[in-house]
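lol forgot to send this yesterday, sorry. struct tokens for the thing we talked abt
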């Protein structure tokens, strides 16, 4: 795990965008793992800005996999994660809808939705780089505290707090679904490179537990310590509880430029 303390959310967005662009330049058929929520938005905006300015790579051959999807929303609902990713990123990068995948929330297929999504990812050759955020309680995707560290894509019940947190995207709390399909922690760990972003002080305790605490289902994001290639991008507030913060700064400052992230 490489912890990279940066100065601002804008600096994080630029760094994360550099990582994703480098992957696509190396492999025009790269497989990208995408997250929703507020944390990735600056990165997505930066990728779109560069693409529209003509300085980014072509994304025509890229395939995308979303981390999760609500269960129970009408087809085409604007708050579905498929619609959200299209609106916030893939349409702006010129990635066709047929190249953007998400777990299938159709009622009749729910019992097999997880296994089918795992098969889709495997058939695509696995995910090259996966973007991640973290919840204030340490959850990763919708793997809440207590989730199996080896879990695969499956249906999960949203906690009352998570539904409240997501209510800002809906007209009322009653409209927030109670279930989601989410990649499991084991699924996430199968990606070749994980880019983990956290900003603001509200995430500082969770970041400290994930990066420096014990690996435990009590903090699902701590499972990232088991992955061989994790890049942790933090603003000063999110990094403020790290005991080894000075060490991370020193190591990153002395890193050979040729290594990259």
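and heres what i got for the seq, position by position
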């Amino acid at each position: 795990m490489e912890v990279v303390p940066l100065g601002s959310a804008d600096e994080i967005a630029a760094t994360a965008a550099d990582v994703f662009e480098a992957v696509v330049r190396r492999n025009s058929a790269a497989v990208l793992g995408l997250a929703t929520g507020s944390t990735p938005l600056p990165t997505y905006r930066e990728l779109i800005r560069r693409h529209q300015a003509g300085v980014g790579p072509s994304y025509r051959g890229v395939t995308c996999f979303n981390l999760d999807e609500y269960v129970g929303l009408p087809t085409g609902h604007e708050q579905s994660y498929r619609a959200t990713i299209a609106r916030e990123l893939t349409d702006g990068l010129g990635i066709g809808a047929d190249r953007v995948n998400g777990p299938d929330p159709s009622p009749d297929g729910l019992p097999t939705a997880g296994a089918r999504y795992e098969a889709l990812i495997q058939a695509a050759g696995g995910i090259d780089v996966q973007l991640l955020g973290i919840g204030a309680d340490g959850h990763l995707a919708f793997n809440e505290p207590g989730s199996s560290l080896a879990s695969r894509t499956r249906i999960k019940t949203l906690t009352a707090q998570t539904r409240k947190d997501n209510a800002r995207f809906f007209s009322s709390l009653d409209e927030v679904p109670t279930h989601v399909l989410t990649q499991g922690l084991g699924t996430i760990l199968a990606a070749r490179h994980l880019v983990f972003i956290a900003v603001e002080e509200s995430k500082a305790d969770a970041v400290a537990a994930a990066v420096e605490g014990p690996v435990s289902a009590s903090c699902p994001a701590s499972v990232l310590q088991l992955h061989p290639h994790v890049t942790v991008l933090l603003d000063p507030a999110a990094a403020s509880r790290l005991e080894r913060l000075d060490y991370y700064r020193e190591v990153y400052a002395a890193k050979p430029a040729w290594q990259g992230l």
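The chain has one domain: 2-256. anyway ping me if u want another try
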